[in-house]
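To: structure subgroup
Subject: Chain for Friday's discussion

All,

I'm putting the inputs and outputs inline so they're searchable in the archive.
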Amino acid sequence: MRPFLFLGTRAEDAVAQQEYDAVLAGCGLRPDELVRVRLEQGPLGEVDPDAWSGIILGGGPFNVSDPEDTKSAAQRRVEADLHDLAVRVVAEDFPFLGACYGIGVLGRLGGGSVDRTWGEPIGALPVTLTEAGRADPLFGPLPPEFAAFLGHKEAVARLPEGAVLLASTDTCPVHAFRLGLNVYATQFHPELDAVALCDRVDAYSAHGYYEPHEQEQLKAAAREALVTEPVRLLARFVELYARG
């Protein structure tokens, strides 16, 4: 099998490793079958689609809607690399799954827009599949409604031209969409469990996702939430796109 490519953007080593391990486990792959590139550490370089079965992009503290004068040189480089990659995977309809940050990267293509209108606080919320989501090869095996962990400052305000809406919450209209047949983005985190979410709450305490007095309350709520279905997207993505 050709390996899958995992792209990370988290500068915090422990959280970055935890994210990769969670995606690895969710996909049911070995490390040599899910090759990681940490984009915050250096340029992406040339990506040869023939070398890979598909690409998975993780989340992180970068937001495409951050004011330009607040973005670090690393963030601007990562955004440029991912924009070029996104244009290419959409043009070639190459298998791609972007979680959280990925929806920002894809959401600005083709007349789409991403802003702070539909941000949601950290926690678990019910995600509802659209009719197209229920019929979709990747999302269709999931229940029509399921709980997912999320927490984001920005979201898609206008879908890219030709995008198919796959899932929503009551407080964020675009939680997943597809471009072409094989390019996907989710606003929620399919890899997250309660332990990992609590660790991210601690790791990003200074990033403005919540008020300091909310930290322990958010972690307690995460431990009580029952989130079981989103991780199935990862194994399904591998099932659909693994190739020799």
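Points worth raising on Friday:
The chain has one domain: 4-241.
The first helix runs from residue 13 to 27.

D.
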